[in-house]
Amino acid sequence: MSFGRTAIFGIVSLNRLKTALPYIFGTATTITYCYVHKPFNKHHAAMLDFFRLIPTSLDTDVSDKYPDKPSESFMAESITNKDILEKDALNSYQARMEIFILKLQKQLCHVLEQYEAKQNSEIRFQVDRWTREEGGGGITCVMQDGEVFEKAGVNISVVHGQLPVQAIEQMRARGHQFIARNIPLNFFAAGISSVIHPRNPHVPTIHFNYRYFELVDVDGTIHWWYGGLVLMFKMKMIIRLFVFLSFSGTDLTPYYLNENDCKHFHLSLKKTCDKHDSSYYSKFKKWCDDYFNINYRSNERRGIGGIFFDDLNQPNQESCFSFVKACANTVIPSYIPLIKTNYQRSYTTSEREWQLLRRGRYAEFNLVLDRGTKFGLQTPGARIESILMSLPPIAKWKYGWDFKEDSPEMKLMKVLKEPREWV
Fold this sequence. Notes:
By secondary structure, the protein is of the alpha+beta class.
């Protein structure tokens, strides 16, 4: 074919394509619209949900800035009045903490729902916003019986009221200095806590909580720290009991030891700690290993640890808040890659059996040794469902184990009894 004929053929074809383009685009638009609004089958619906659920801030840290669209950034209406919260967002650590945990709760719930949507589009977080008569409230988000997550809870609480003399004296015994003597004081407490129990034995369980506390002394001085949280529950005859939920931090509980996963998790935490204080990681890791110790099981740890701290109020408030935000923002990059790598791995009946046995240990620690759980269960009027949110949905106990010394199960047990330095 000559060059002239080729050119003429190309021009004619281009003109025909221009004529056809509006019809092509129109047909494609119609098909897309119908597909999005009424997918062809359940699998397609799940994939569409997956893309819809991707938050715009997934790859960025959550901030304490009040969002332009709160309804899209929070799981439910804020505990504090939204006008007051927005007004105080620049000059109040109470407001900044509440905004931060509201946004972090939303982000984490959306990230978890992405993975669930790949397998079962009908499983989503149930949202329960609650209030308390004495002041404040919380938002409990729980996802249950999923294909990826058997149970996942992400809770926040923002409470305030009067702290009685007995509770103040307990704080004084922990080293806090107050002018007040035999006088109740006003307090404020805000925090986020989460426990995620995946279905696949090769995906570890994670637990974290980060909390902020303020107490106003008789001279107007505001005593503040990050770590311990006080919750107030109403009892009969107008008596009130105060429950201390200590510590802030993140820890990991694997069922099978994947050393790369453990190193990634601890390295993520160490990098965050080192940006703020080079002594933090080693100090807070030891604290975590010591706390999650089932002493009556021959000092068997619940998991491979992480970081935990309490009463953090040095060097200054902004530095402490920045550190807490950084730690909380490390949860997703430290844990989600472990889900991504392992949640579709095949597993055997015996591996599932081992997971349930290890979950039994998890439940033991929470019910027998964990201070917050124990006090909460002994408190009349407490939100029992929220307290027990941390427990796995299915666990198992068996009289005696029969695993070979060089088995993967015993490899994990060795690390649980002799905590390792992962980084």
